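alpha-L-rhamnosidase
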Amino acid sequence: MLKINYQEENIVVDRCPLFLSWSVDYRQTSFTLSVLKDEAVIYTTSRADNATTLHLDSFALACNTQYAIEIFVYGEGDNYTSMKKMFSTSNFGQFTGCWISGDKKASDDGYYLENRNTIIRKTFDIVDDIAMACMSIVGLGFYKLYINGSEITGNELNTDWTNYNKTVYYDTYDVSSLLRQGTNNVTIELGNGWFNPAPLKLFGKYNLRDVLSVGDPQVIADLVIKGTTGEFTISTDESWEFCEGAYIFNNIYLGERVDFRLFRGSNTSDIINPVWKKVLMSHGPKGEFVSSFIPKIKQATTVDSAHIYVVDENELIIDFGKIVAGFINLMMTASENQQVLLTYSEAVYENYTLNSDSTLAGFVGKEVAPGVIIDGGPEAPHRAEQQDTLICRSGVNHFVNQFTYHSFRYVSISGINLDQLNHICAVSVHTDLAECGGFRCSDPYLNQLVDIARETKLNNVHSVLSDCARERFSYGGDIVALAKSQVYQFDSATIYEKTLVDFINDIRPNGGVPETAPFMGIKTNGTGGDAGPLGWQLVLPYLIHIHYQHYGNVKLVYEMLPYLERQLAHLERLNLDELSACCLGDWGSRDVNTENYKSGSPALHFTSICFYYYHIMLLVKLFRTINLKEKADFYSNKENEIRNEILTRYRNEDGSFADKSQTSYVFAIYFTLADDIPAALTSLRNLIAADNDNIKCGIFGQSFLYEICRQYDQDDVIVKWLSADEGFKGMLNGESMTLKEFFGDNKNGSCNHAMFSSYSSWMYQGLGGISVTDDAVGSDVISINPCFIDSIEFVDCWHQTIRGRIDCNWHRNGNGIELVIKIPYNLKKCTLTIAKAYTVLGELPASMKCDSFNQYFDITNAGEIKILLTRSLH
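Structure:
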């Protein structure tokens, strides 16, 4: 396995350094690496060690060129492997083309009225034989690209969303096979996406048009064609043409209105009787062009209807049996001018009518308190529901969403009867993150919980790690709470790097980090100047730490540290009394004061200062990572000062902290503030047991608690909690395949929200026993320490790191527990921990050490291990 910039295929690079990683199934002693251009070696390097990651920046790249990396890896004896990976370069963001658009002018006025989308085209001739052709393009907000009638790649909801005034991500495609000698045509269909949002006042106050980088849907592109006699470029300029498309309305929240009478077949870009006009030259956003490097949004799985409820001759309600975030795929027979309305919801009322409250964009139209209904502003719909309107042609009409996605289990179809419905299915659509872990055990319910966590996470990643369909924003706090579980389930190297860039792009002028990125105005209990609350600002230092720990890119650490110091300087302008109120605390806790949810989280002031403390702790760790001892020592002194302040302010006489809530105990233990950890654990266990094994912590407390219980062998607490009737069982109610936003009363919550899915990290690290240690660099230090819960008969667990795949499988038999471990070679260290309650039978190195409870074995470079564990007599 060889990866370039964490990618294995369709690799496009626009700058050095390149980050390479590879793995082999033997102990590496040396490697030789070459970079090839046109089969000629332009750079080579060799090393005699077992390093399996490398930064390459000692050669220059040419634009629009194909390269190859070839590596020869040598081991002891005859062990030898060669690996080769191709990559190509783009135009390096140096477009010769200009931004072009139709004649629509983005504005608040009339946004909700008929406003057809734009289609742009260029027809040109090629006389030469085509050796290679590539196209670099940005289409804002979303675009579909066709060459000679064939759609390119099948990506959905493209371009990647960010602050377009800071960064504009462009795509590069190899289109050699789609061009031909003679006449050719390039067609680009544009949708509004995030670049032309509605003037909808989310939560009654946030108009995205006032905050985001917005404008007319537009495109910039270069098509570079290399022929046998030379090279030429076709770029967007005033010679291109545009016409109006078939979408008379499209919005990322509110849906689409499509007129089937305007186009042929199923291709909405194939307009009947188009009126072509010269394009307008546009200015475009101000951001730097950067080649897109995250996986693209794709159509994933399809879900057939589970039940069709016929309301009457003019309405159907389709139940898909589970919540899907994505598209509807609908085929129906209709008459000319027949109008069909699709309304989507995650829930229904007892009488089977749609309950769309959980997906109303920004609560617009929802009664959030008696007599208080959120108003969306002038001309906005009364209820900001997810809806599609289809104006049909006579015959078969086939509709699949293109410029929006919906979160739904139910869809009401008004305007047709059952006989007219030919086919319908839901299509899951999300960023195509590769899974990097798997978990199965003997308990079907735990397996289901892992699947539900995976599905809910995927439902909410569409080029940003968002919260839910009601908002679709990337909240820093949610990302922090889910980071550990995310990296064990999905390869998150590139999406995390983009997330860091998103937050850097929107750092406030005072140095504070926003609550969401892209920043859209929310700053609840922030630290001033539009900066977010402390726990949400943690996203910057924490994600850098997680990225380095799992993916090992030290250059990213160097790039980010100046922003972290600037952020801390901003926080230090406030005293501790002020900082203690600058957070939402342990969000989602069931111990919250419901009369003041913004400031009613348990132990709010204590947890807020703990978050501040954590900022400094992480900064110390990162400076030690890059061996800047002076700075590390400087911030370490600050760390000690804040620790002492926390102890003085919040430690009670009995050794507990703050309000003695579950959250307060979790924070005190997690940050090792408690003098007597065993006593604090006992108090915490007693609190949870008194609450019928329910963990009442919010998103941070639960995430930290899974770590605590694994670290201190309290796994039985988690087993009881996951099975508690008032916990996830009550939330899921025996049928849901996605998590809700809140436990208990979810009246104002989403039914498709991943913020409480951090438990899956415990499945991998606790029951599965696979952990990348906190001091690892690019997953080079591994701990194997499976938890053998009496009620579990077997566990099969695996995790793919950049160093290779790790497997830890155990099952009970008549003699004991059979444990099979497979680890990649060339790790820095791998330690197996076995409780002293077990006798180990089988071939293992002698134990490195023992303590009162465990025995430890160094299994670095052991490859595969099979042992039997039997209960010790003593």
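The domain at 781-871 is CATH 2.60.420.10 (Maltose phosphorylase, domain 3).
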